[in-house]
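We treat protein structure as text, and this decision shapes the records that our systems exchange. Such a record has a labelled line for the sequence and another for the backbone structure tokens. The record that follows is passed on verbatim for readers who wish to inspect the format:
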Amino acid sequence: MLKPLLDNLFGRAGRPEAEPVDLRRAAAALLYEVARADGDLDAQELATLMNGLQTRWQLDDDAVRTLLDAAREDAEGATDYFQFTRPLRDHWSAEQRAALIEDMWAIAHADQQTHPREEFVIRKVADLLYVPHSVFIRARHSTSA
């Protein structure tokens, strides 16, 4: 009785036996959230997002598009970030979570302007992933160059 409720609340990524593809989808949804945070899904931000997904997980173009479409659907239907961050926090190492924050900053900086809403999303996600503030700041500055 509780399992269907939790699966519905957290999605497949929230299960103890979450598949890497489910965790990637959760991460991609968070990356998409940064790209759309300022109300303008800039072409450069989208390209950075797609290149990051392709590079991080060695995906081909079709797999990236499929992942991004699923992530977009998830993000646009979400009511909060917890459904994405909890599975990542439970299944990913501190290094993997820090790398996600770096990827988020890369997207925010892609259009050469970081909007306060983009920073808010990244800060919120970093907090939910238990990424230390020093790592958040270091990632911000390492991707702005």
